[in-house]
Amino acid sequence: MQASRGTRTKTRQLLKKKPRARGLPPITRKFQVFESGERVNIIIDPSVHKGMPFSRFHGLTGTVAGRRGAAYEVCVKSGNKAKMVVARPEHLVKTVS
């Protein structure tokens, strides 16, 4: 039988929290506001399943292109192409610079 390949395959280590960081994030992370053109890091929070981007984009930096409902569109360069990643604010962190 062929193994299933869901959206979280091969993410055992990637989407794992440290023991003292387990549980839900603070509620303020959900209410973050990002402006268009702002640079953000995509850091997937495994405890929030809704609005989670694909695991390939974990740790990448991109620019906010706009909103899509409660989520943000982030333009990320992957290889030689620019990709549009849709992620909720729980999975985004402002870059320091």
Description:
The chain is an all-beta fold and 97 residues long. 0% of the residues lie in helices and 31% in strands. Strands 4-3-2-1-5 form a five-stranded antiparallel sheet, with no helix packed on it.
What number is the mean pLDDT? 95
**Main beta-sheet annotation:** 5 strands, antiparallel
Radius of gyration: 14 Å
Q: Which stretches of 5+ consecutive residues score pLDDT under 50?
A: none
Structural class: mainly beta
Widest sheet, order of strands: 4-3-2-1-5
Distance between the termini: 50 Å
Identify the overall geometry.
globular
Helix content: under 10%
Approximately how much beta-strand content do the residues carry? 25-35%
Provide a count of the helices.
Answer: 0
Count the strands? 5
Name the helix and strand elements from N-terminus to C-terminus, one letter apiece.
Answer: EEEEE
Summary, kept brief:
This protein is 0% helix and 31% strand.
Please outline the helices and strands.
Elements: E1 39-42, E2 61-68, E3 71-78, E4 81-87, E5 92-94
Comma- or semicolon-separated keywords:
97 residues; mainly beta; 5 strands; globular
